[in-house]
Design brief:
Blueprint lengths: L22 H10 L2 H16 L10 H15 L9 H29 L1 H6 L4 H29 L5 H31 L3 H15 L14 H8 L1 H13 L6 H25 L3 H4 L1
Length: about 280
């Protein structure tokens, strides 16, 4: 969709001002000029929706299928036969996973998909990173109606946990920012990187406790170890556990905290070193 904008329509303040490399400075300028990345993300979704009979309602279909389709199918396999709370468990987990995976896969192809803008030199690279995150945020919003329904019919929802959800979402998107920066550069250098992530996403979904409980993994087993090494597991837990009234594992807090600090430092260094080569790679 971003290809549809003409360079004349880009505000002067949104134009690039030199070779890329200063990650935080360019990011600050992109936030000050959201005309491109925010509008183009929304228009891309609207255009896709207009091509179908049910329009934007189709964007709700994945969340309905994940939550009430898979939830109904797997509920009977859970210890105790499952309950209405299992729908909330699946909904919250699927929403976080979908949001992060959308940012990961979208960022891996965002530079190649914006080839003409980048070669024209009119936009900062951080504009395209935020465009990818904005699309991820719209995916997050499409899950909200189904999540609200699941929470209403569930038992034992913690109101205090709902308040914790706001900083948890902020932390998730802060990690999504550095992941987008690193993966977008990798995707520009290796064009098949996005396809690889699409393939791996199925395995990561099954490895993340979304349609099953972590307690089902035998302690000390290889499967339990892989689950705890999976970063999606910890992001899901810091968001979902408080809402369901469960304690958050200390390991998950340390995992996410260290990953956030190390990831932002990595994104700063990698962007400074390799952002200048993006026009050559694409």
């Amino acid at each position: 969709m971003s290809e549809g904008f003409s360079s004349a329509s880009i505000p002067v303040g949104a134009r690039s001002s030199g070779a890329p490399g200063a990650f935080w400075r360019e990011l600050k300028e992109s936030f000050r000029n959201p005309e491109f990345w925010a509008l183009s993300s929304w228009l891309d979704i609207i255009v896709r929706a207009r091509k179908s009979r049910f329009g934007i309602l189709w964007l709700l279909a994945p969340s309905v299928v994940y939550v009430f389709g898979l939830g109904l199918f797997f509920a009977s396999m859970q210890p105790g036969g499952g309950s209405n709370s299992f729908y909330a468990y699946v909904a919250l987990g699927a929403m976080v996973f979908r949001t992060l995976m959308s940012a990961v896969i979208g960022s891996a192809t965002v530079f190649n998909g914006s080839h003409s803008f980048i070669m024209d030199g009119h936009m900062r690279l951080t504009d395209f990173l935020l465009q990818s995150l904005a699309k991820s945020f719209f995916d997050f919003c499409m899950y909200l109606p189904v999540v609200i329904v699941a929470l209403v019919i569930a038992d034992g929802i913690s109101l205090t946990g709902l308040l914790w959800a706001l900083p948890a979402v902020g932390l998730i998107y802060l990690n999504g920012l550095w992941i987008s920066a690193v993966f977008s550069l990798a995707g520009a250098r290796f064009p098949d990187f996005g396809q690889l992530l699409n393939t791996v996403s199925i395995f990561l979904f099954l490895l993340t406790p979304i349609i099953w409980y972590p307690e089902m993994m035998p302690a000390g087993s290889i499967r339990s170890l892989l689950m705890r090494l999976n970063p999606f597991y910890h992001f899901v837990e810091i968001f979902r556990a408080p809402i369901l009234g469960d304690p958050v594992e200390v390991m998950s807090l340390w995992y996410v905290g260290i990953m956030t600090v190390a990831g932002l430092a990595l994104a700063t260094l990698v962007y400074r070193r390799y952002a200048r080569f993006v026009p050559l790679w694409i």
